[in-house]
Write a structure and sequence with these properties.
single chain, alpha+beta, Beta Polymerase, domain 2, four-stranded mixed β-sheet, 3 helices, globular
């Protein structure tokens, strides 16, 4: 996993703060492959509870992460169990690393 330990801790803290202490978190995409360089930070969160305004929470979470670890491209997926999932959620879970 190409994510500094401090960055991982900050990301986990912020996402748990926004989406619940028992929210499940994944890092997926190019940052999972140690042989690559660069790339954005692809994250998926499965909230502990139903998220009322997911866009607002997503913006708050990404902004807080960027302020804490520096301005980096961050993609955040919010997995909602109540809707039919697109393929990206299944790929993120299958190929990602739990944080």
């Amino acid at each position: 996993m190409r994510l500094a330990e401090r960055d991982r801790e900050v990301i986990c803290h912020i996402l748990h703060e926004q989406f619940g202490e028992n929210a499940k978190l994944w890092l997926f995409g190019s940052r999972v492959d140690d042989s690559l360089q660069g790339g954005d930070i692809d994250l998926m969160v499965e909230p502990e509870y139903l998220v009322e305004n997911s866009l607002a929470q997503k913006i708050q979470a990404v902004s807080a992460i960027q302020m804490a670890i520096g301005d980096q491209k961050i993609d955040l997926l919010i997995r909602k169990k109540t809707i039919k999932e697109s393929r990206i959620y299944k790929v993120a879970e299958a190929t990602g690393v739990r944080l």
